[in-house]
Amino acid sequence: MVFHGDYEVEFEIYEKREGEACGKLLGHMAAVDAYDAKIRWVEAHEDRPEQYDKIVALYPKTEWR
Q: pTM here?
């Protein structure tokens, strides 16, 4: 049997800010892909709908090797 968690990786969650290239690191979320991580983050933190467009999930740069 294969569990969903076997394929999950840890994504960094950022809040985009106007005038900033990087944004603010909010935390980390395990997921299968960036979209899934973003959805899980918004659901877990009950962010307002207008915050959804400001949230970005990125695969950590340290894992790119």
A: 0.75
